């Protein structure tokens, strides 16, 4: 039997690289953060964990405790899931943080106040309220048309702030209702502080001159 030709070896090698790349992608971990009893646990999980199953998360994922005052602003280009029982820790975790794909799971029957989270670059939002009232998970796709490429690194205006061309405001009171998720977007908003004078967020929002923004309200 004749040995394989150089062309055949090249094809076999290319197929091997492709298979390895697929395997690595399949093994890519997702980030899970859960808050419980004034503690924050940040986990890297190789498989989906049932909502609010803290014991399983600690067993199956690689987790570490993060002190609330030590939470650092970061960005999440892939899936981020957060389990929470109240809104106290969500602001430091999410406000003006770049998150592409976010799932929020309420793990208590608490009534949540009308508070807003301001999230940069959000493309998909999923919410689960099974602990509060039995209903299927909801999902919302956000099309803004003005965001950068998904793999582009966020620019920093100054330390601790990210510039983002789209910002989504999420009304946390929606977890008290069983109605469907809705959103409303305003494109080409060049002066957010003047366009939305009642939103205190924009008084400290890192605005770049000569830039326009997409603002989405989720309710």
TrEMBL record:
<dbReference type="Pfam" id="PF15137">
    <property type="entry name" value="ECPIP"/>
</dbReference>
<dbReference type="InterPro" id="IPR029250">
    <property type="entry name" value="ECPIP"/>
</dbReference>
<feature type="signal peptide">
    <location>
        <begin position="1"/>
        <end position="19"/>
    </location>
</feature>
<keyword id="KW-0732">Signal</keyword>
<dbReference type="GO" id="GO:0160040">
    <property type="term" value="P:mitocytosis"/>
</dbReference>
<dbReference type="GO" id="GO:0070062">
    <property type="term" value="C:extracellular exosome"/>
</dbReference>
<dbReference type="GO" id="GO:0140494">
    <property type="term" value="C:migrasome"/>
</dbReference>
<dbReference type="GO" id="GO:0042802">
    <property type="term" value="F:identical protein binding"/>
</dbReference>
<protein>
    <submittedName>
        <fullName>Exosomal polycystin 1 interacting protein</fullName>
    </submittedName>
</protein>
């Amino acid at each position: 039997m004749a040995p394989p030709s150089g062309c055949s070896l090249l094809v076999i090698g290319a197929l091997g690289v492709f298979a390895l790349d697929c395997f690595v992608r399949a093994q890519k971990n997702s980030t899970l953060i859960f808050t419980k009893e004034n503690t924050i646990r940040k986990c890297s999980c190789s498989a989906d964990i049932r909502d609010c199953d803290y014991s399983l998360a600690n067993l199956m994922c690689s987790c570490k405790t993060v002190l609330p005052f030590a939470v650092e602003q970061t960005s999440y280009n892939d899936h981020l899931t957060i389990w929470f029982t109240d809104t106290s820790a969500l602001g430091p975790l999410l406000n003006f943080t770049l998150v592409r794909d976010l799932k929020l799971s309420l793990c208590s029957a608490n009534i949540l106040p009308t508070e807003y989270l301001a999230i940069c670059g959000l493309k998909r939002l999923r919410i689960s309220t099974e602990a509060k009232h039995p209903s299927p998970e909801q999902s919302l796709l956000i099309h803004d048309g003005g965001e950068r490429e998904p793999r582009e690194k966020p620019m920093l205006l100054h330390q601790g702030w990210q510039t983002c061309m789209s910002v989504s405001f999420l009304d946390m009171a929606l977890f008290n209702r069983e109605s469907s998720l809705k959103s409303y977007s305003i494109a080409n908003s060049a002066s957010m502080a003047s366009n939305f004078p009642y939103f205190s967020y924009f008084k400290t929002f890192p605005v770049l001159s000569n830039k326009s923004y997409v603002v989405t309200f989720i309710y």
